[in-house]
Structure formats: C-alpha cells, structure tokens
Amino acid sequence: MKKYSTYLVAGLISAAVALGVSHYQQRESAAAFSQSSTVPVQLASYNGNLPNDGFVQAAKVSTPAVVHINTTIKAKKTSGRNMNPLYYFFGDPFGGTPFDMPQREQQGSGSGVIISADGYIVTNNHVVEGADEIKVNLYDNREYSAKIIGTDPSTDLAVVKIDAKDLQFLSFANSDDVQIGQWVLAVGNPFNLSSTVTAGIVSAKARNINILREKAGNLAIESFIQTDAAVNPGNSGGALVDLNGQLIGINSAIATPTGSYAGYSFAIPSNLVNKVVKDMMDFGMVQRGFLGVNIREVDDELAKDLKLDKIQGAYIAEVNKGSAAEDGGVKRGDVIMKVGNSDIRNSADLQEHIARYRPGDKVTLEIRRDGKTIEKTVTLKSKDNTTSLLAKNDKENQGAVLDILGIEVAEISTLEAKKMGVAGGLKVTKIKDGVVSQNTNIQEGFIITAVNNRAISKKEDLEKLLGEAKGSGILLEGKYAQENGRKYYAFGF
To answer: Is residue 9 part of a domain?
Structure first.
C-alpha cells in the first residue's frame, strides 16, 4: 500500500505545466485518492422532491457503459547482484534475506468508462499503473483482457482497450456547462460492489486539491469538479454523469480523514478527459500545449492593487524565456481573465483550459493590464518550446520522468570523471520542485554514477532506468566533487 497526502497549497505555480501535488493511493482496491482535512464534513441532506425519473433514466443509460477493472501486479523475486538495493536501507518487510526478497502479488480493483463501441475505455492512471494483468468485467458479466493504450500521470488518466464490438458507450457532455448545484450521479464499483449508483450535487468547480504532485511533479494538472455524491475505494475511474446520462467527469479522488467517503468527491472534467483520451487514441501519448508562465492566485489584496472588478483570474508572476507567452506578448503583472470564450476563475482553471490544447494551437487570451482589458493571441508550444507534435518514443516524452523527479542533469566530461575517480556519470545541474526535493537532500553538483546498482553515463541511461523503476524504489549512487566517499539517496518513485 502506498500513501501520499497533502492539501491545497498557495503561492506560485507553473501555468500550463501544472502545479505540484501529492496523493494517496490504495493499491488493494485501486482506491480514489484521499487527503486529511480539519474541516468537519457531513453528507448533504436532500430536501424536497427529487428528480426520480431523471435518476432512473440516467442510471439506465450509464450503468451498462461503466466497467469493473481488476488488476494484478505479479510477485517478483530479486536475488543476488540484482537484488533490491533498498534492502540495505529498510530491510525486507516480509522477513526474507538479501538473496531472497519476494514481493507479494498485489490485486487491485477500480472502474472504467466505455467511450467507443469497439472497446476503448477511460479510467484513472492509478487504477492500472504498474499492472501486469488487466481484466475488464462488463455490465453483463462478460470478461475481457485489456491492454494499456496510454497513461498520463499529469491528469491521472489512462486508456485501455478490449477486443470487443458493439458496446454501449457514454457520450461526452460539455463540462464547462456544468452548474454548481446541479444533480449528478456517480457510477462505479466501490468495494467490489458492481454497478453501484449514487447521487449528489455539484458543489464546486475548478478545485485544486494538490493530490497529483507526488506522481506528476510540476506537470500535475488539477481542476476537479467537486460533488457530494458518495465515492469510495473502487469508484476510481468511474463515471460522473448528468441526468441525461452523459459523461461530465471521471471520478478520481475523495477528501477524507478515514480512507472512505466523508462528504466530498472529485472528478476530472470531461472536456479535459476528452482531449487527453483523443491524444492517447491518436498518438499513444498526450500532446500537451504549454503557455510557459508562472502564476499565482488572485486574492482580495491583489485585486485591489490591480484595480480588478472581480477577484478572479490567474496572475502572471513570471514569463519564461522563449515561451509561447513571451512570443505572444504576455507580460509579468498581467491577469488572464479568459481563454477563448471561457472565464478563468483561478489558476487551476487556467491550467485545465490550456491543457485542452496541443502544441501549435492558437488560443486567444483576455488579459487585464494596467486597468485595461486587452486580447493576445498565443501559439502554444511543447515543453521544449517547439510547436511540433511529439512522436511516441520522442526524447521529450522520456524527459518527462526527470520533470517528475524535479532535476536537470548533464553528462560529465572524461577529464571530470578522471579527477573524481569514476567511470562516468551525470551531474545534477538544477533541482526544482519534485520527488527528489521532497524526499531527499540532494544538492546541485551531485554526480549520479548508478541507479539501482546499474552504472550510468548518459542522460538516456538515467531516463530508461527511472522509467523501468516507476512504482518502486530508487537508489541513486554517486559523489560530490568536493567530498570524499560515495553518497546514497533512496526514495519511492
């Protein structure tokens, strides 16, 4: 079982690349994320006449398109030279020896939503992450093996495919049209209880709960629809639908001090889901456009200083060099009020709207500057400031692993290696917010010579080994130029 927890953070965040987060994951049931809160919560009480006919119709439409996903991570045994290096730091929780370290087989359970008649299914990344086997059970009890088409830790979304035809699927609604106070249904498989339907209302939009940071670092994108529909472990990846039975979100998270539902649940909005899913189906990976700015929330004090009519929008704290924003004339001190025709409530809202676009797409920004409203048209870029779409095996995609860790590295020269008495390695040139800074005290200048006991000398080596080790432990071995002896840093990844 892996556990991560934090709540909402204020201050500067990276626009269009998303802010940092952390989360809680319960592998045994592919549970929705959870987080602690000191705010007392209770179930909403429903007064008056309920729209029973609407509930019934929405349930009839949606339940056949929501599937039960069961995953298996096979037991692995590491021995001899290839043993888990974290043994030396933490021991074996199962009582084994350094040369016999079994890992128990792990079973997971979650939900998914059929989005095409030929078997494409959207779910949460945390439901299928690391799975060796994925089984999908349909509403009529048919079972299929599934393969992963694509995953995106930044949004906690994944697409899997089963070999089936003529399936009932859900259509996407426009999540921008969702209104606070409207009735919704959550459909999924909590606690392995198949085809469970719960009702609630939308209680907030564009909610950032800082839950994805542990997995996605500064690339995390959160702008959840908040509801009081009961969601529990196993609901992850299931549908949030309106009373027409159309998909308005993918249920992903809960706010709870106990691990079970305590009053609030959170869903990824359908407009973002739709874009990410199309990218995965068309390219096998997400094509994400970046604005290239650092942003902060607009509060009352800032709104007064900037003479804003409303306390909303996203304040531009910094414009990155060579970014789409710089090319498009966006300046520090600007407040982005709209993307296209959509009002921007807060920083999370801006992140979501930008994340709906690909590199090369043009977007119109409504900006407040010096008390005036202006418009700027910006051509979004990739993370590396190009307008090109990525190939599935592009180095840029591989480099996302380092972004999650929050480090930049450079190869050391033969002369440097000789002076330090190493065969080769990578120097940590920059440390940003990410897994490394949150879990270790690594300093800039550290020379990484090995990952999990395997020597490295090139950036590609590091990216490959880190990618292979995702979901497990990492041991970095190396040294500092000004110090004698080797250093070791261990952390979960």
So the answer is: yes
Our count of domains for the chain comes to 3
Is there a contact between 211 and 22 (Cβ–Cβ < 8 Å)?
Answer: yes
Residue 149 confidence class, pLDDT cut points 50, 70, 90: very high
Spell 237-267 as b/e; 16+ CB within 10 A means b.
bbbbbbbebbbbbbbbbbbbeebbbbbbbbb
Inside any domain, residue 86? no
| 3-state SS class at 79 | coil
Listed residues 252, 285, 318: the one ending a domain: 285
Quote the pLDDT of residue 370: 92
CA dist., res. 224 & res. 202, Å (int) = 11
| pLDDT at residue number 458 | 83
Which one from 23, 126, 228, 252 is the annotated catalytic residue?
126
Going by C-alpha positions, the residue among 271, 266, 270, 233 that lies closest to residue 252 is 266
Which of 250, 269, 285 represents a domain boundary (last residue)? Answer: 285
Span 336-350, pLDDT tens digits: 999 999 999 999 999
Q: What is the mean pLDDT of residues 293-320?
A: 93
Q: Is the pLDDT of residue 36 over 80?
A: no
Indicate the SS3 state at residue 366: strand
What gap in Å lies between CA 332 and CA 330, rounded to an integer?
A: 7
Active site includes 23?
no
Report the residue count for the chain.
Answer: 493
The answer to whether residue 26 scores a pLDDT higher than 60 is no
Residues 136 and 210 in one domain: yes
pTM: 0.70
Q: Does residue 369 register a pLDDT over 60?
A: yes
Catalytic residue among 109, 175, 195, 236: 236
Cα–Cα dist 7/452, whole Å: 32
Beta bridge partners of 160: 121, 148
Encode 250-292 in three state secondary structure: EEEEEECCCCCCCCEEEEEEHHHHHHHHHHHHHHCCCCCCECC
How far is the C-alpha of 292 from the C-alpha of 161, rounded, in Å? 34
The domain of 248 spans 1-73+107-285
Q: Give catalytic status of residue 236 as yes or no.
A: yes
**Average pLDDT across the chain, whole number:** 82
Token duo for residue 400? 């996302």
Produce one character per residue of 43-64: b if its CB has 16 or more CB atoms within 10 Å, e if not: eeeeeeeeeeebeeebbebbbb
Within a domain: 267 = yes
In this prediction, residue 18 carries a pLDDT of 32
To which H or E segment does residue 239 belong? strand 239-241
Answer yes or no: is 394 within a domain. no
